[in-house]
Amino acid sequence: MTENPILLYLHIPKTGGTTLSACIYNHWHAAGEYYVGEEGYLHSGIYYFPIGFFKDPGLAIPQSVLHGLGRPDLRAVLGHFRFGLHEYVSRPCTYITVLRDPVERVWSLYHHVCGRDSDVNPVEFATNPPYIEVDNDQTRRISGLEPRLGHCTRATLERAMDNLRRHFSVVGITERFDESLILLKRVFGWQGGLGYYPKNQTRGKRGTTSLTQEAVDAIRARNALDIELYDFANELLDEAIASQGASFRDELAGFTAWKDAWHRELAEKWEAQRAANRIAAGTT
Question: For position 51, what pLDDT does the model report?
Fold first, then answer.
């Protein structure tokens, strides 16, 4: 059994969490002990929380999941759960999470559920959400509460802020992913490389610059609490980085330069392979 606390990665949908999950697995799984259990959800001590992207407010945790959370070889839980999962784990736990700019997150969610060519208007999507996840979902999940659509309050936000401050070892930011990753490495003493390539990106997604001001305003109005929580999370990340000293910035600069060069090299190799495939298929 590991002496480390159980790592609970509270993966908020559409925050780049699939990429981070791969990094966590690489550094947190039981090295040299590859095995699969719990109906395929447990991999070498890493449990992939099986309750999905969209949540039912009244959903109880199934007995099969409780069994997985109680395993003595459990090292980490990754998935779309909400704060409070630690109450079902008998050993010491610590949370981590990543927040994203609320307009960017909701726009990514829109593309995920509606598709690029959807007839659903983004303004309507935000004003009359078809899913509760459109409505201050970062505040909801981190607070551990589940108000009805449109009923998140300042008390919900304050609960979420208090949880981040008291129960989360690292609070990352999607737009500051490299900083968040280096902080995770330092806080948890990860050894070895941190190379990653973004995973599970929505294909054909247009940037938020294609949104009308009306759509941006509608998303911001629907997610006013998430905007405050996102600003607070950035402050927490700034504080955590400052506590690491000047060497943090040096390590970050070196990592980012290496990663960018590696990504360019991969892109060149893939383009060369695509060109070779086109030649072989006679499509050039």
Answer: 83
pTM: 0.89
- Count up the domains in the chain and report the number: 1
Residue 144 pLDDT = 94
The answer to whether 21 and 97 have CB atoms below 8 angstroms apart is no
Whether 264 is in a domain gets the answer no
Is residue 5 within 8 Å of 77, Cβ to Cβ? no
Q: Which residues pair with 37 in a beta bridge?
A: 42
**Residues 6+ away with beta carbon under 8 Å from 208:** 103, 104, 107, 216
Tell me how crowded residue 102 is: count the other CB atoms within 10 A of its CB: 23
Range of the domain at 148: 6-244
| 184 alpha carbon, distance to own chain's centre | 13
Residue type, 266: L
Pairing, β 42-43 against β 36-37: antiparallel
Query: How many residues can be counted in the chain?
Result: 284
Give one DSSP letter per residue of 198-249, joined into a string. Answer: --SPPTTPPPGGGS-HHHHHHHHHHTHHHHHHHHHHHHHHHHHHHTT-THHH
44-101 pLDDT, tens per residue? 999 999 987 777 666 678 899 999 999 999 999 999 999 999 999 999 999 999 999 9
